[in-house]
Each structure stands twice: as C-alpha cells, then as structure tokens.
Specification:
By secondary structure, this protein is an alpha/beta fold. It has 16 helices and 15 strands. Helix 1 packs parallel to helix 14 and helix 3 runs parallel beside helix 4. The radius of gyration is 20 Å and the shape is globular.
Length: about 375
C-alpha cells in the first residue's frame, strides 16, 4: 500500500542524498459510490423535515463549498453557514447551538471539535475522507518530522487532528503564502505537508526552501494543462482562475491562483463575463448566486490528455446527503466526531498560531511590516 518517495527541497529535483518519506499510493484509491440524486420534490420534503428537527435538537448545519447544491441550500435555509473548512469551524464555535452538523469531510469535523470541545459534532458520514489526509498518515509523518528536529512544521488545514497536533503551524490556502514568507524572514527551516502542488506553488512564489511532503488532492490533481489550453482557445476572453492544489503547469496558465473563497471573491471583482475555473464544481453554487450574470466554465479534467478520477467533484463530499442528515438527527450513533483530548490540546496550539498570525498580519498590513515590528509567532 505504501511507496517510498523523495521529498523535494525548494525547486530542485531530489537526489540520492535526500532522505525519503512515505505516503500511501493513492493511484488505486477505492472511491465511494456516488449517491443517487434526489428529485426536486424529495429535496424540498427532506429540507422541511430536517429544518424542524434542527430546531428540536438545537442543532445547526455548517457546509463546505464543495458539498452538493441541496446541502448548501439546507444550510442557508436553516440559518447555518457555508464556507471553507476553518471558517466553518470558527462559525460553529461562535454559534450558540449545542450540536454542530458538519457537512464536509472528516478532517473538517475534527477541526470543528478542536475549536468546540464542549459541543456535539456530528457528520453525515464519518468515512468521508480526503486524499490529502489519507496521504499524510500521522505515524509516518511524525517519524519524518523527528528526523528533522531543527525544522518547524507547517501543515495544511486538510490534515487529521493528529497531524495538526504534530505541527507548529496550521495554514489555509488563503494565508499559506504569507505564513511561509514570514517564517522565511525569521530564517526558519521548514517542513511542509501534505499537498505537493500547493507546496511547489509556495516555493515558486516565496523562494523558501522547504522539505515537502508529496500527497495530492484527487480533484485538483486531475486538471491537465493540455485540455485547459484547448478550452482557453475556445474562450479567448475568459479569465482563468485556479486553485493552487492543481499541478504547476495548470497554475501557470491562471490569471489568478488562490483559495476557494478567494476565487469566489475574484469573480465578483473582475469585469470579465466568462470564467474558466479549476477547482471543485461545488463552488459554482455560491459563485452563481453572487454573480448570476457571469458565465462559469468548469476547467476540463477528462479528454485531451486528462483522465478524470473525481470529475471535478470530490466523491467524499458527495457522501453528504439529505437522507443521511435526517438519519443522524433521529439517531446520532455512529455519526459523532471524537478527538483525543491530548491531541486536541496540541492541535489547538497550532491552529491558534494561525488565528493569531492572521489577526496580527491584518493589523500590520504586510508580512514585512509584521516581521519588522518584532512580533514573533
């Protein structure tokens, strides 16, 4: 199941002197079956019943941008929240509801529990995974970190609670560049995990030297430059927006590369009429809602050199269904997220460093100004 690969430092290729690390081989990953779609009438009926049950249970739904339209609609109609993983967890922490239903993947439920240990955190499907999380097993990652005790450890939010507990800092894709730039100014040696493409993008943008873990997101890894170039030729006036979890040759074609929420905001800001978007198509729901007059074109991930594994929609996100949400409200057994308290406390430290860094960066106005102020996080 595991294969030995070499970490990449900076922008160079690995050589025989590099230490190796292990990740699961995700090429033959067993993906979950796609649930059957519901009719419009079924969606309406489920939504009405769930809304009533949420009030009875003092519960609220927080949904990720990549879940299905009907799940995002449920969150909106019942006073819940839609956003990126960390924003979901923060919103859930600040909401008075005693029970938080996390419509997303497992690490998102764990993050919500880390920030809200006193609340009941439920998920429609506890086996809803993430290839980045699967690609960075805590034991193997911990061993690698132990071999480099002089490096600070920076992990992406798309990791388990146990991996976050091993880290010095957690980052999201919206602030990863700034965090690495800051640590570079502080002359820190850095281990980055787990996304290889985002790590490469950060190295190219900041010039930082990092030992990089080599996992990937199966959705964004599917995008291929050849197919994207052909689509761009068909739509010469379209702007290209890419999530940096995509391969480097795809990101290089972008007019803008950024996080899911940054892509949403960029469509709002830009004057263009057409947009080719290389990320999970779940985000199209909120973009279409915010910009109904703009044409959204999914970046290709099938044909012309691209064979799709996920077809631009995370198969684990699709496991979040209205029937499962109704089921867990009737019987939460087998749906609750638990995080070991020692792991939770350690993971909270690295998450709080992210929140502290974000707040201080906003006050300072730039990474350089923050560094020159003498603040060390």
């Amino acid at each position: 199941m595991k294969k030995r690969i070499y970490p990449v430092t900076g922008n160079r290729e690995p050589n025989a002197g590099d230490r190796a690390m292990y990740i699961p081989d995700l090429t033959n990953l067993s993906l979950p079956e796609i649930p059957q779609p519901l009719s419009s009438r079924e969606i309406e009926e489920y939504t009405d019943r769930i809304a009533a049950r949420l009030k009875e249970k003092d519960a609220v739904v927080i949904a990720h941008y990549y879940t299905g339209n009907e799940i995002q609609q449920l969150a909106e109609k019942t006073g819940g929240f839609i956003g990126d993983s960390l924003e979901m967890a923060k919103w859930g922490r600040n909401n008075p509801a005693r029970t938080i239903i996390v419509a997303g993947v497992r690490f998102m439920g764990e993050t919500a529990k880390i920030l809200s240990p006193e609340k009941t955190i439920l998920m429609p499907e506890l086996k809803a995974e993430c290839s980045l999380d699967l690609g960075c097993p805590a034991d193997e990652f911990g061993k690698f970190c132990d071999e480099h005790p002089d490096h600070c450890v920076v992990v992406y939010a798309n990791t388990s609670a146990a991996v976050k507990a091993r880290a010095d800092y957690v980052v999201t894709s919206s602030i990863a560049l700034e965090m690495i730039e800051y640590l570079k100014l502080c002359d820190k040696k850095i281990i980055w995990a787990p996304d290889r493409h985002l790590g490469s993008y950060i190295c190219n943008q900041t010039g930082a030297e990092m030992l990089r873990w080599q996992a990937h997101c199966i959705v964004h890894d599917d995008f291929k430059a050849a197919a994207l170039k052909a689509l761009m030729a068909e739509h010469p006036d379209a702007r290209v927006l890419v999530h940096p979890e995509s391969p480097a040759d795809v990101t290089a074609l972008a007019d803008f590369a950024g996080s899911t929420s940054q892509i949403l905001n960029k469509v709002k800001e830009m004057d263009a009429k057409e947009f080719i978007i290389a990320t999970d198509i779940g985000i199209f729901y909120k973009i279409s809602q915010a910009c109904p007059d703009k044409v959204l074109i999914p970046a290709p991930n099938g044909g012309a050199g691209a064979t799709c594994q996920s077809c631009a929609h995370c198969p684990w996100m699709r496991q979040n269904t209205l029937p499962l949400i109704e089921k867990l409200l009737d019987n939460p057994e087998g749906h609750e997220i638990h995080v070991d308290e020692d792991i939770r406390r350690k993971a909270l430290i690295s998450l709080n460093r992210l929140l502290d860094f974000s707040a201080r960066l906003k006050e300072a106005g730039s990474v350089q100004a923050l560094y020159e102020s003498g603040v060390r996080i």
